[in-house]
Amino acid sequence: MKYIDKKLTIENTKIQNIAYKFGTPVYCYSFSQLKQNIINFKRSFQSFSPIICFSIKSNSNLNLLREIGKLGLGADVVSMGELMLAVKAGIKPKKIVFSGVGKTSNEISYAIDRKILLINAESISEIKEIERIAKSKKRKVKIGIRLNPNTDANTLNQISTGKKDDKFGVNKKSFIKVIEYCKDSKNLELECLSVHIGSQILDYRPYEKMLKVVDNIIKKIDFKFKYIDLGGGMGIPYNKNSKKLNYTKYNSIIKKFLKKNKSKIIFEPGRSIIGNAGILISKVIYIKNSERKCFIILDAGMNDLMRPALYGANHRILPSIKNSKMSKKIYEFVGPICESTDKFSTLTKFQELKEKDFIAICDTGAYGMSLSSNYNIRPKVTELLIKKSKIKVIRKRQKYKDLI
């Protein structure tokens, strides 16, 4: 995104024109940004050429998944629905990994039938269920085991997944027992050690600690894994003051690890691929003054973008047209939902806005539309893909008659 003649654009298309033509709220994605993110990610780790499985939970738009698949990525799925979507998007089963703590028997059976790369199991009970289903199908199933490394990712508690009190994976003691169980099974082929410590990580050091734990446990069990799945979690800067994850140092740490452990690396990035490729365009419905601040009431609500209400996340907000008049009051950007948490940002410095102006909420490509809902019986919004100034509707706005 950039300003051209004081007008905000995405791939040289004016935000204001998009809003007028397609209505608001509306999600827009930049194809060139998405493509560049994938190129940059591949370059960062080109010395060992990992298998890159896009995390579908971050954005599940079928058209975007097709583009991501064409650019060479596989898929990380956490439900049968996501697996079905990945297959429909044309992603090859041998580039799909199935994660998650609560896979049902139906989901496991479906994954086995699709012959995907790996089912990453997270408990001994799940492993026994995979074995039972595999035996009934007279199949040998390739699995991974997710280790809980008890590593603090130094991120939000709500998106931490690698500490001992988190529900994900098995601890070191249980991990060793699971290895022995799998060795004796005729229907399980253990190929992968999986680990994932959290999301929105901006410091390489938690990854360094995680890899030390993985290295130590591999030494103890004396078992060679074909794959080491390092998950995802790579963060993006949501504001100007945020630091960026040092991919060069993370790459060096992994290369050092691979000198001792000859395995193929799997990554499961989501946010780092799609996060900054998306924006949410919204219209100012009303401006309401109070004693301390000024409420900028938008037509987008927490049902459209849940992250601020769910995590306290803060997204940059930009006006569609720049002006030089600064507001003398604090601006609080809020939505129309009947909840006090339906607010996006409180800013002490922002240009003056008028009712019916348009704004863009930035970096909403990940966990924006995928977390949206019909709360307050509000239709889900239109999604657009902007590709070389061509606009393609990749999801139509829901209609009230479809909801009621």
Tell me what you see in this structure.
- The longest helix has 17 residues, at 205-221.
- α5 (105-114) crosses α6 (124-136) and α8 (205-221) packs parallel to α9.
- Strands 4, 13, 14, 15, 16, 17, 18, 19 and 20 form a 9-stranded mixed β-sheet that branches. An 8-stranded parallel barrel has the order 5-6-7-8-9-10-11-12, surrounded by 4 helices. A 3-stranded antiparallel β-sheet has the order 1-2-3.
- It folds into 2 domains: 2-29 and 275-403, Lyase, Ornithine Decarboxylase, Chain A, domain 1; 31-274, TIM Barrel (Alpha-Beta Barrel), CATH 3.20.20.10.
- It is elongated, with a radius of gyration of 23 Å.
- The protein starts with a strand and ends with a helix.
- The chain is of the alpha/beta class.
- The protein is built from 12 helices and 20 strands.
- The model has no long low-confidence stretch (mean pLDDT 93).
